[in-house]
Amino acid sequence: MQMVDMFFDELEDAKNRKVPFIIPIGTIEYHAHHASCGTDTMCITGIMRELEKKKEIVVCPPIWYGVASYAVGGPETGTIQVDVDVYEQYIYCILKSMLYGGNKNIYCVVHHQTEEGGLMPMTLACHKAAKKLTMEYMEETRGKGWWGSNDYADYYENLGSGDDPFSYIKVIPLISKEAQHKNGGFDHAGLYETSIMYALYPDHVDLSRTKDNTEWFAESAREVTMELGQFMVKNTLEALEEIIK
Fold this sequence. Notes:
Layout: H1 8-16, E1 21-25, H2 39-51, E2 58-59, H3 84-100, E3 106-110, H4 121-142, E4 169-173, H5 177-183, H6 191-200, H7 226-243
Parallel strand pairs: 1-2, 1-3, 3-4
Helix pairs in contact: 2-6, 3-4, 5-7, 6-7
């Protein structure tokens, strides 16, 4: 289900049943000459489109602008960079509306600088916003000393479950470390990212333009195949089916 298409009663029902709400966390960034600047975000929305066919989820509007950094290229390449502190506050405000609105099964799904499941500025901003909000929410709704009260004597027994307040909001990479290994690798605008994008949105990849690429990170894009992209989609979906509960 796409959140923007849902009516109030449908949203309330989904929240009450703790259906996973997915927030695609992407960027607008230079992806050489052959792939669109929305690749990071579209990889998430494309995978979620396929995941919707397998399990009940609510896909929220994506966050297109992010902490891209100018590591790949400057603003002249079309990359749009948001300062990490501003971004953290923005994410915090979105999550706050959702959590205080009764949603306690939220997934921020990131596809940017997540090689080996590593934590980089944008992902860290999401983690910080989520944990800060959770602590504030619990203190405001349960009072100071909530964790130490006898009401939470079963805290450790519930770790990772829907009753664990620190599981209300999860921040995960689109392609887990294990799925990356199964896929064969992970990159930016190269063989792997372009292949999965090609399988999901073939009209946003133009392989004839790879001849115009001069950057090292895009050289392997010449080897892109639909078969590899479909293989990556399959592996990514299988992992997410287990991760997203």
